[in-house]
Each structure stands twice: as C-alpha cells, then as structure tokens.
Amino acid sequence: MSQVFDLYKTLAEAFGPSGREEAVRETIASLARPYVDEMQTDTLGNLICRKKGTGAERRKLLLAAHMDSLGLVVTYIEEEGVLRFAPVGGVFRGDLINIQVRFANGTRGVISYEEKTDFKDLQMHNLFLDIGASSREQAEKMVQVGDFAVFDAPMFEQNGILCGPYVDDRIGCATLLLTMAQLPEIVMDDMYFVFTVQEEVGLRGAGTAAFAIEPDLAVAVDVTDTGDLPERKYPMDCALGKGPAVKVMDHSALCTPKVRSALEEAGLLAAVPVQREILRFGGTDTAALQRSRAGVPAGAISIPTRYIHSPSEMCAVRDVEQAAVLLSKALLHTL
Ligand code: CO
Ligand code: ZN
Predict the structure, then answer these.
(1) DSSP-derived pairing of the beta strands 83-88 and 100-103
(2) Cβ neighbours of residue 141 under 8 Å, at least 6 residues apart?
(3) Distance (Å) from CA 169 to ligand 1 centroid
(4) CA of 280 to the centre of ligand 2 (A)
(5) What gap in Å lies between CA 150 and CA 177, rounded to an integer?
(6) Each residue of 266-320: pLDDT tens digit?
(7) What's the pTM value of the predicted model, to 2 decimals?
(8) Of the ligands numbered here, which is closest to the C-alpha atom of 67?
(9) Which ligand is closest to the CA of 196, given by its number?
(10) Exactly one of 13, 26, 80, 199 is catalytic; which is it?
C-alpha cells in the first residue's frame, strides 16, 4: 500500500461529520506536530498549524483543507425502533440506499427505504435507519435524537487509485500533511496549515480562521469532479491520474489570477503535470478565504475525484503525491 493510502485510511477512519471534527483534529494534530512550530484550535474547532518564517519581510501564506465530512443527524425515532434522519451537508439520497453508517459511540446501522413509495419518487424523508432495535425504547438506549452518523464503507487501493468514503476532503488533509513534511527546516515566509471545520455545510470554518490569521495569500486543497466517465451531462477537461488540478473557478469563487498562475508555475518548476479546473457546481473553502476581511488573493489545488459525496469516492494516488510536490514548490518559490 502507498503512503498516501495509509494516510488517507488513517484520516478517513476518524469520525468527523461537520461540527463534530474532534477525532479528525486529534489525528491530524499528532501527525503534524513534528513539522510545525505552533498549533492552536480556535473557537469553531479549526486546527491552525504554523511553521514560522525567518525572513525579514515574511508574508503569511495559508493552505487550507477541510476536516469535516458529510453526515446524517437523527431527527426522530419510530415506535418500531427505526430512526428518521436529516442530511448534514450535500448528501444525495441515491447514495444512501442500503448502505451502512456508524455513530460516534460505535453503533452501526443500515439505511433503507419505505417500500410503498415508488423507487424513483424516493425522498430523504422516505428513508430510515435500521440499527437492529425492535422498539423505540431499545433504540433510545443506543442512539438519541441529535446524534450524528457517518458512512461506514470499505476502502481499497488498486492500479494506482484509491477508493472509499470521505476522500472529500481527508485527501486534502493528507496532501497538506505531505506538503509540510517536504518543506526545509528554515523557510522565509510564515506558513499556516489550516484544517478547517464545517465546510460541507457552507464553508463556515475557513472564514473565521482566515479572519484571525489575516493571510497575504490563501490556497485551499479539496476534491473536484472529473469528466472522464461515459455519458457525462457536461464535458469537463479533468481526469483521474493526469495531475492535480489548478482551479480557475467554481460556483462560489473566481480564483485570483496571480494565484492561479503561481500554482501553474510551481507545476512547471516541479515537473508536475497540471490540469485546469472549471467546476460548474459546488464550491470550496477558496470562496470563504478569498472574501475574508478586505479580501485575500486566493486559489485552489483540487484532486480529481469520481463519485464525490458517495461512500465510494475514488482518486489517483499519484495526483495526491504530485499535489504535495507542487504545493511545497509553490510555498517556497512561486506564491
Ligand atoms: Co464536499
Ligand atoms: Zn470538500
């Protein structure tokens, strides 16, 4: 298994739906400690790691990846002992049929659906979560209304790709960890590696972190869609395994051109192939970073990923390795 897969697996196994990122934060903090000078958790729960620069006119460069994942929250417990739930973040109901989930306390369950409803008409409220309880009373001993659950899905590595839940964005967190490990001991600029919270529910953590840090420049690392599958709705010039993608725009941000070109230049310097990303839907922390205070020049590196937001997201190991090489070059030379 590759180092990237091992790191991904360690991070993806940690429980961390939006607003409940403690376990992911602890895992990342222990992995980041050798590479940074200071570590701090802010009020919302963002983990802010700082590598101090020694330059006289040092700038503050910020890299961000979100720790949180999609999840579910229990809203009601039926007399029969099955649970009703609401999504936390952009969960697609089609991804939920007969899959397994787990709670922070280890309780597991299967999501299924009301048979009486025609399959094509299924809405989130026609789904339920079966934890093997035979009554409401029994269910309440295991899980309460307000408890969060996450996908519990297998992970594998094969032919240079990796697959499993929460590649979005534990792979971004892994990329940041690989990047900090590649930096020399002495650097000129102050470098902030920020592991953000609550991205999946509206880029909430990145905004407060950027406000506090006041960076001179910011780059988010997250996943993006690919156009390399048959019969896609829209053409997209982005494929698995062809290198990290430099974001041009998505639905929430137009990346600052000088940041975009600095990232592309770093790709050239590092001899890493890059793709350009134009994502029609969705957004990332880039938008919140860019709009912080009076505005911050911002861009993003994206890992091309298939089946985003499903329990089986897939990306290429080499794209992740190359993203880290590109980012360390960018921090040292081009940003
Ligand atoms: Co996402
Ligand atoms: Zn994401």
Answers:
(1) unpaired
(2) 133
(3) 7
(4) 15
(5) 23
(6) 999 999 999 999 999 899 999 999 999 999 999 999 999 999 999 999 999 999 9
(7) 0.97
(8) 2
(9) 2
(10) 199
